[in-house]
Design goal:
Helix 5 links the parallel strand 4 and strand 5. It contains five helices and seven strands. Helix content is 41%, strand content 16%.
Length: 207
């Protein structure tokens, strides 16, 4: 009986010792995982928080197609505010729009430029600018505007666009609508929904 108890105790001590040896490995792995997540967040999301909370949220394929439907029958120059990895700009440029994407994250801008080069799209059709959209002083040269930003900035952005855009401009918001603008059209539902606004119907401040 004593021998059996001793064997059980030895097995238990061995199991505890083995678990204790595993803990540093688990702790190190967890730390590495957290540091990796923080690194990705700092590269892709952190730049958007310099002024207001605007994390990087890529457009889905369905959402991009909804935007293109809202641009049917239109042409000219298009600007994407917060262009991310450039997928919307590249899609619109393939349909004949002359596009510019403004993005504060230099890593995403570099990625979009490389992707455009690999697709054979010249900079005259798809241009990516590494700049804070709030520092872009004049958007009057664009008659098509697309935005995919956080809901907390939409009201502030609306005031900027009301001052700078012409009456012939169509603005398309992805996932988060402008709170006070009259909607001209909408496509999709849920996370893929997009709203179109015609500036001729938007009340602008008197100058």
């Amino acid at each position: 009986m004593e021998d059996s108890v001793e064997v059980i105790l030895q097995d238990k001590r061995s199991w505890v010792s083995h678990r204790s040896q595993d803990r540093p490995v688990i702790t190190a792995a967890s730390g590495a995982l957290l540091m990796g997540c923080y690194g990705l967040w700092s590269v892709f999301a952190l730049p958007g928080f310099r002024r207001v909370p605007v994390p990087y949220l890529p457009s889905s394929g369905v959402q991009t197609q909804n935007i293109m439907r809202l641009l049917r029958g239109r042409a000219g120059r298009l600007v994407d505010l917060g262009s991310g990895d450039g997928r919307l700009v590249l899609t619109a440029s393939s349909l004949g729009f002359q596009c510019t994407g403004y993005e504060i994250n230099s890593i995403l801008v570099s990625y979009a430029r490389v992707k455009a080069r690999l697709m054979g799209i010249p900079t005259t059709r798809a241009r990516f600018v590494n700049e804070d959209l709030w520092k872009v002083t004049n958007l009057s040269g664009y008659n098509n505007v697309t935005v995919f930003l956080a809901p907390g900035v939409m009201e502030v952005l609306a005031k900027k666009l009301e001052k700078e855009l012409g009456d012939d401009t169509r603005v398309i918001a992805c996932r988060y609508p402008f709170p006070d603008w009259p909607v001209a059209e909408t496509e999709g539902r849920g996370l893929d929904q997009a709203w179109a606004y015609d500036m001729t119907s938007v009340c602008k401040p008197s100058t």
